[in-house]
Amino acid sequence: MFGEGLLKGLGVTIKHFFAPKITEQYPEVKPKLPPLVKSRFRLNREKCIACGICANACPNKVITVNSEKDENNKKRLTGYEMNLQYCLFCGLCVESCPTKAIEIDQDFELAAYTRENTKMDMYKEALTNPPGTAAKEDKGGKDA
Amino acid sequence: MAIAKQEGNFRTQEFILNMGPQHPSTHGVYRAILTLDGEYVVDLENVIGYLHRGIEKLAESRTYTQFIPYTDRMDYLAGMLNNWGYVMTVEKALGLEIPERAEYIRIIVGELQRIASHLVMVASMALDMNGYTAWMYAFYDREKILDLFEMICGSRLTTSFMRVGGVPNDIPEGFLPKLEEFLKEFPKRLDDFDNVITGNEIFIKRTKGIAPIDGETALDYGLTGPNLRASGVNFDLRKVRPYSIYDRFDFEVPVGTNGDNFDRYNMRMLEMRQSLRIIRQAVDNLPEGSIMAKVPKVLRIPAGETYGHIEGAKGILGFYLVSDGGTKPYRIHVHAPSFVNLGIYPYMAKGTMLQDAIASLASIDIVLGEVDR
Amino acid sequence: MDNIFINIAGWIRDFIAGFGLSEGLVYLAMVLVKFVAVLVFVLLNVVFLVYMERRVAGFFQERLGPNRVGPQGIFQLVMDILKLLSKEDIVPAGADKLVYKTAAYVIFVPTMLVYMVIPFGKGMNVIDLNMGLFYILAVSSLTTLIIFMAGWGSRNKYSLIGGMRAVAQMVSYEIPFVFSFLGVIMLTGSLKLSTIVEAQQDVWFIVLQPIAFIIFLIAGNAEINRGPFDLPEGEQELVAGYHTEYTAGRFAMFYMAEYANLLAMAAIGTTVFLGGWHGPWLPGWLWFFIKMYILVFGQMWVRWTFPRIRIDHMMHFNWKVLLPISLANILVTGIGIKAYEMLRTMGWW
């Protein structure tokens, strides 16, 4: 009968009208992202040997590694910067790192007002906010 | 095809309507120059290139691994399948054997991605006829798939999941139960969607018999994928030239009869159910083992040419790879199904009404990221 | 409770009469007061309706809809309108300025004129015209002209197509729309809205005229460009149809007029088919209000379920389906009335 499909459609929509809603109340309720999500990267300064493999693995030349040779002719990290505005968040740097010095993090609130602010000085940040310690606490606070 | 008849002294004047690049239903930055006779489309001209990023050229300055993240930015609705097509071509050039488990994981995520892509297609087809609610329902399901992707590869849209030689991450904890839940819920949601849109008389009336393409024309225009099968040509790479391990799975290839908008839409609806069957079998037979083949750190492909293709969500997705023996490709050309499929749009739109022309554009399921690359 | 608004009107009337004005002037002042009251009522309802539509649409789509501004997002539209009013007012360079601007200013007029005769409760109308229903039909068809003015004056091809579609659609759907009332008019023998409502004391006309009611819903939906019939502003093909070029406050006028029309259509439906203010326990005006919102919800339900109909299908549906059915309905009603009278004269009833 003509109109049967229309009535069925009306039935489905009214069913969904009373179904539970899925809207996320984002700023108040932060989503808990799975541990594989690459939202940002953190550097472990102790592990990093300044080899520069990550910078080479990056498809978009996002990473700049600065290093100097110390008295034992050993490379020492002096600066590590990620220009996140060009980052593809593919995670190839994390995979390529031979010492697992770069870690992924689920802190996704990276919006910045200016282009300059998208540059992330991970060398400095690693001092104040090293991976594994403060980052986790930070996240725990947000989940609550 | 009823072009407005101009009889006697009643003359109508044709006018040109510029649709896009800023228009609600051009599915991206696509522009169509329409010649209209009242509500009827007399002529249509495709204008593309607004989203051109030179990805093929970019490939020439990236290593083989580094190009993977770029592939999922072409057809951004089916990132997994793009990754797959590319890494498969590289593997073919290298002659690599992929571990069983990696193949199964690829099948699972690939078919999930196909469902996600088809969901966007049916949703946007509904949306282009103002079926807002159905659109939301489909996106709700797609969201579930993207959540699954988030668990397994850490990204939702631009997955960059596959690597030459396998997949980078094994199936994480909690993924399979969530997938089971999806496999259980999704058919019901599909039924709901069917009831809202597929069975809706207005929808049927607006799509059946509109812009039909017969099999021969479809082949002439080089259509592939569901668009070709809607015209009655049974050609699915997964069946005809099984790649990966598709020959182990039991599934059907839906084939249409008229090649009209409804058939093209229905192909997607039916294929989603078939994809579910494939996922079901893949999950049940998932073997243990490694997920990555032994691959050298620096990939060097022997000089020569390779062409690899898969059945993408929108058609045959082919990668043509020319290597000069170095670490970077000499040239990569992508056979992008959306680009080829868009070619038939003027043929489809001619003689239909403006509203149907919009629906026809949705029915061939183009993604402008892939058209322009 | 039932007469609360009538009592208030009475007090105001006494207050005005206290100035020692002549009878005619008091009457005029009272009409003005009632007009303002209805205007405020309509505007408040429009604000709520837009919120309600977005909320209802959200619920149909398993989301929440606006829930940020104020409790449950109830002030969303207030903020939206404030935003729109603060935007730059752009008049397209090639537009016919007079037509373009006039259309935005007068879009509310036909709708408001419709509200003038609606009995919101017993004795609660601004003017109880003898030709109330006829007046409504005459006035509401003016909207067509204004929408066409907007489409034509904008000098935009999308607007023009939208305006043309509006004319084609609204003029054709006017006919079954009018015919759907004819059965009711035959039953009551009056065009006066209060008489029509009084006649539904025992049984609502939706029971006696179910087919006419369905025709009314469909044609009414098409008249106000909503639901599956929103072709003149068909977003997917015409961007925004006849109001593509309107910005800022003028756009807000069109936006609000759409909802004022929706409410007007629900009010007419309530009056003619759903027994107006009749209903047990609750005061009459509340019943009217409830019925009106039930109709509005129905319209939203339909709108958020169905895809848009195609223009030629719409015309076919009107001329080949709705019109014959409405004519048949009139015929059946006429036969029914005659049969009823015959049976009565023969004493079998």
Question: How does this model look, in words?
Answer:
The complex is a heterotrimer of chains A (about 140), B (about 375) and C (about 350). Chain A has helices at about 5-15, 55, 90-95, 120-130, 135-144; strands spanning about 40-45, 65-70, 75-85, 100-105, 120. Chain A is built from 5 helices and 5 strands. With about 140 residues, chain A is α+β, with helices and mostly antiparallel strands. Chain A has a domain at about 35-130: Alpha-Beta Plaits (2-Layer Sandwich), CATH 3.30.70. Chain A has a 3-stranded antiparallel beta sheet. In chain A, strands 1-4 form a two-stranded antiparallel sheet. In chain A, about 25% of the residues are buried. The two termini of chain B are about 35 Å apart. Chain B is mostly helical. Chain B has one domain: Cytochrome-c3 Hydrogenase, chain B (Orthogonal Bundle). Chain B is globular, with a radius of gyration of 21 Å. Chain B contains 15 helices and 6 strands. Chain C has one domain (about 80-345). In chain C, helix 4 packs antiparallel against helix 7 (about 140-155). Chain C has about 350 residues and is mainly α. The longest helix of chain C is centred in the N-terminal third of the chain and has 38 residues, at about 25-60. Chain C contains 15 helices and no strands. Chain C is globular, with a radius of gyration of 21 Å. The interface between A and B is medium-sized, with 29 and 33 residues.
